[in-house]
């Protein structure tokens, strides 16, 4: 006998075509209905609620009186929730964001009575290679997936999926998607016909005879009649050699495992990411729409775990107050924006505005948390040594190693002449910024990291805004430092930097020499090995006839590059710490796409790039601002290597991923694929060609999509400009539209857009170095000038303190308070391809004990700890370990 498992479920988009409040109202009605059904009908056994908990919270904000009822049904195993907080996109967000989403979501579900023990990814647009590792670490027993897989990957919909670190998990693929149909017919004859029709289509995908039928789809309600209908079908399907029952993901997984144990059948093993469009659209190009939103999201998912939380730990070691719950509040805000339809921006304008409003909330909240941590130093340190002409500046380095970059300090000065000194009156060299950076003067910055308390006096001329840059290597590892601004003392010492201007367009430091060509491209010389790269960094603009889901080329296109243009070139910074040029193009492009063709009507946009080389750096940094006047187009920054490779290597969530530059095997539109697969790839923060002798890598502070041209050029997508949510009959996606054919004019991004990225050049491939360079590019140094403070002793705290240090071959992804408030949590990543043994990390806070921990922060084996040195016996390749220090 074969067993049919009917899983009644819903896929609940928290927001998509309509707002979260609209869908919250629907959720209230849906949950009310579900509670009523479960209370009065014991034969209605299970309802699977999309693997997430955010919508349960949404409901309980309206119906708090029903918490105990829902908790009862969750505990009884009739409602299944978790382990996610929201269903995110997987590729667009960081590894740590995925982990926190699952930690917070599974804790909420557990507190409600039970967390579903199965991973649930019905609708992400493709699957990342680390997914098995993540859910294995969370303690899940199995994983259910859809998009990205096809029938060619495995012969069976039940298989093992293996991550790069070797972790594997039982995986069940929905062979017809997560919604075979929305509602089962109430008439048993029609229900029988439907059920057996689907069984016939999928049973060959379930070798063990446990057949999965998904009853439900987007925003479907619980169907009370299924209990009666399925009961009536038992005899009918029995005559055909089947049983049928209401089921749930946990039951299905357990019964599949029983069959496997009994048969001793060896499952197929799938390895890597799943990006096939054979069975479901994966929407190539979703990673570069609404870059105004995606750039901000990238920023805040870095600032919260790598700045705000570590700052809070540092502050707490000198008596500051810190509770993880306030950080989790903002994590939830991030997760709501990382919900797959939200981060994709595959929504009408009003919904994208909702996402932007949450970004504003993140900006306000995270700036205030940084300010409170800066202020905690003001209230704890001994300031009796300060003279009347001296002010304090406090700085935090939240990386557990020395910074090798420059730090920008923004002052409001009562005297333009000053020196910077440390606690022992040693001079701290600095250079004044000639081309001052714009500082946000909104209210959260007045009392936040940028001190504009006296901004009015600048306008009146009684105070002056001055910006300086100092070397980041004066800062302690994972700690804070206080320095002095000493007014009336002229800084006359020579600044010993290595950057110099050779001629009007050529500049160098000890590692790199750069020449700006007439067309704005760069010739870059690696001075360490004398390898020269020519015509580096130009812009490509071409048409995009797609929508918020897919890039699609117009039938008639016009491709434009800046290599044929002559820009204006202006020197804007010239110190021994930094040389910076501004390169500005006026670029004429077609106005828009009409009827799948670019128009003859042209429009002018400007592309302005600040190109910077800093002291002791192997990076050339770029800050590009585009005043976009054109519609329906895509703009990329192109970097040409001197070597060639048929593969790229990009940063992934817990290591790196190697991809072919071309799609070697795909089903294709002619064979029924849902869209043409394009070699448009997501990345975390860097990409390079694979298996090259030298390191030529593009690092990003926002843009996260790339292609490789001609096996030689790295094409970093800066943005796509489109005006439709969904569009029909695209060249690469013919037929129906995705979503709905609605206008989304704000997604044309007709405004100024700014992008930051870098070119890193080294002698050989060093993945650890790329991770650290990407961190230094993305993780800022919070600082604050304290011009109003009491020159007295508050507490006996040092002016400088370091509390954590990591060796070169590992990275920190989390440094936080434990969820149960009992101790501190460290998450340490080995991003390399080799296992690590006896990794020593140095801590300098408290006299506690250290334990290996589960992802859910359950303490395990105690770790050796000697004089502040914690020894981690083993970290697998491309893997993380979680440590609790109590």
Automatic annotation (TrEMBL):
Signal peptide coordinates: none
SUPFAM superfamilies: Families 57/38 glycoside transferase middle domain (SSF88688), Galactose mutarotase-like (SSF74650), Glycoside hydrolase/deacetylase (SSF88713)
The keyword Hydrolase is annotated on this UniProt entry: yes
Record InterPro entries: Gal_mutarotase_sf_dom, GH38_C, Glyco_hydro/deAcase_b/a-brl, Glyco_hydro_38_C, Glyco_hydro_38_cen, Glyco_hydro_38_cen_sf, Glyco_hydro_38_N, Glyco_hydro_38_N_sf
Keywords from the named record: Glycosidase, Hydrolase, Metal-binding
Domain Glycoside hydrolase family 38 central: 281-359
Family, per entry: Belongs to the glycosyl hydrolase 38 family.
Protein name: Alpha-mannosidase
Organism: Clostridium hominis
Lineage: Bacteria, Bacillati, Bacillota, Clostridia, Eubacteriales
């Amino acid at each position: 006998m074969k067993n049919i498992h009917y899983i009644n479920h819903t896929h609940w988009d928290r927001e998509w075509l309509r707002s979260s409040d609209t869908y919250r109202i629907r959720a209230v009605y849906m949950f009310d209905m579900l509670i009523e059904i479960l209370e009065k009908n014991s034969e209605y056994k299970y309802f699977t609620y999309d693997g997430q908990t955010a919508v349960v919270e949404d409901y309980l904000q309206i119906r708090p009186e029903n918490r105990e009822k829902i908790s009862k049904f969750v505990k009884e195993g009739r409602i299944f929730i978790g382990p996610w907080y929201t269903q995110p996109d997987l590729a667009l967000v960081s590894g740590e964001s995925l982990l926190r989403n699952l930690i917070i979501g599974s804790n909420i579900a557990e507190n409600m009575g039970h967390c579903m023990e199965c991973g649930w990814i019905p609708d992400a647009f493709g699957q990342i290679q680390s997914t098995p590792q993540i859910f294995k670490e969370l303690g899940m027993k199995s994983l259910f997936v859809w998009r990205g897989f096809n029938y060619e990957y495995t012969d069976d919909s039940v298989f093992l999926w293996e991550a790069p670190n070797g972790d594997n998990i039982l995986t069940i693929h929905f062979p017809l998607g997560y919604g075979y149909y929305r509602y089962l017919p109430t008439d048993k004859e029609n229900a029988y016909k439907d059920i057996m029709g689907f069984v016939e289509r999928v049973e060959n995908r379930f070798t063990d005879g446990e057949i999965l039928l998904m009853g439900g789809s987007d925003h479907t309600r619980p169907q009370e009649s299924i209990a009666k209908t399925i009961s009536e079908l038992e005899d009918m399907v029995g005559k055909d050699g089947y049983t049928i029952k209401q089921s749930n993901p946990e039951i299905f997984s357990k019964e599949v495992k029983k069959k496997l144990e009994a048969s001793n059948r060896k499952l197929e093993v799938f390895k890597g990411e799943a990006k096939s469009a054979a069975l479901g659209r994966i929407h190539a190009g979703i990673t570069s729409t609404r870059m105004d939103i995606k750039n901000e999201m990238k920023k805040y998912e870095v600032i919260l775990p790598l700045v705000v939380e570590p700052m809070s730990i540092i502050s707490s070691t000198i008596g500051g107050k810190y509770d993880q719950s306030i950080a989790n509040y903002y994590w939830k805000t991030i997760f709501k924006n990382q919900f797959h339809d939200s981060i994709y921006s595959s929504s009408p304008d009003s919904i994208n505005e909702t996402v932007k409003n949450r970004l504003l909330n993140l900006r306000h909240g995270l700036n205030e948390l940084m300010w409170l941590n800066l202020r905690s130093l003001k209230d704890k340190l001994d300031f009796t040594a300060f003279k009347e002409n001296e002010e304090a500046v406090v700085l935090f380095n939240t990386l557990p190693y020395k910074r090798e970059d420059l730090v920008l300090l923004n002052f409001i000065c009562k005297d333009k002449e000053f020196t910077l000194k440390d606690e022992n009156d040693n001079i701290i060299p600095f250079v004044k910024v000639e081309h001052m950076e714009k500082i946000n003067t909104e209210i959260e910055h007045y009392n936040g990291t940028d001190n504009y308390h006296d901004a009015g006096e600048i306008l009146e001329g009684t105070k002056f805004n001055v910006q300086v840059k100092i070397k980041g290597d004066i800062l302690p590892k994972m700690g804070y430092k206080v320095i002095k601004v000493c007014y009336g003392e002229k800084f006359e010492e020579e600044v010993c930097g290595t950057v110099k201007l050779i001629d009007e367009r050529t500049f160098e430091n000890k590692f790199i020499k750069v020449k700006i060509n007439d067309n704005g491209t760069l010739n870059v010389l690696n001075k360490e090995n004398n390898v020269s790269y020519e015509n580096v960094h130009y812009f490509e603009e071409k048409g995009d006839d797609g929508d918020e889901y897919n890039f699609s080329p117009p039938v008639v296109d016009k491709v434009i590059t800046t290599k044929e243009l002559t820009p204006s070139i202006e020197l804007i910074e010239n110190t021994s710490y930094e040389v910076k040029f501004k390169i500005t193009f006026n670029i004429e492009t077609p106005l828009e796409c009409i009827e799948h063709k670019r128009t003859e009507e042209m429009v002018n946009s400007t592309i302005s790039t600040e190109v910077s080389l800093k002291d002791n750096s192997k990076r050339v940094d770029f800050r590009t601002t585009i005043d976009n006047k054109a519609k329906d187009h895509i703009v990329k920054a192109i970097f040409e290597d001197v070597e060639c490779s048929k593969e790229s290597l990009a940063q992934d969530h817990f290591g790196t991923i190697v991809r072919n530059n071309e799609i070697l095997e795909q089903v294709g539109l002619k064979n029924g694929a849902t869209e043409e697969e394009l070699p448009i790839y997501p990345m975390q923060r860097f990409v390079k060609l694979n298996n090259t002798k030298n390191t030529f890598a593009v690092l990003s502070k926002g843009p996260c999509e790339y292609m490789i041209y001609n096996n030689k050029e790295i094409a970093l997508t800066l943005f796509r400009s489109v005006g439709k949510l969904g569009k029909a009959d695209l060249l690469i996606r013919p037929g129906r539209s995705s979503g709905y054919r609605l206008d989304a004019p704000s997604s044309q991004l007709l405004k100024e857009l700014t992008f930051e990225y870098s070119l890193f050049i080294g002698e050989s491939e060093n993945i650890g170095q790329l991770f650290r360079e990407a961190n230094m590019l993305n993780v800022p140094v919070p600082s604050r000038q304290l011009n109003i403070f009491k020159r007295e002793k508050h507490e006996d705290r040092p002016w400088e303190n370091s509390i954590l240090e990591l060796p070169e071959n590992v990275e920190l992804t989390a440094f936080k308070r434990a969820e149960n408030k009992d101790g501190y949590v460290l998450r340490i990543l080995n991003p390399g391809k080799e296992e690590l043994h006896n990794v020593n990390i140095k801590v300098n806070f408290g006299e506690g004990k250290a334990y290996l921990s589960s992802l859910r922060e359950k303490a395990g084996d105690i770790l050796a700890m000697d004089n502040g040195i914690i020894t981690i016996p083993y970290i697998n390749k491309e893997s993380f370990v979680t440590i609790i220090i109590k």
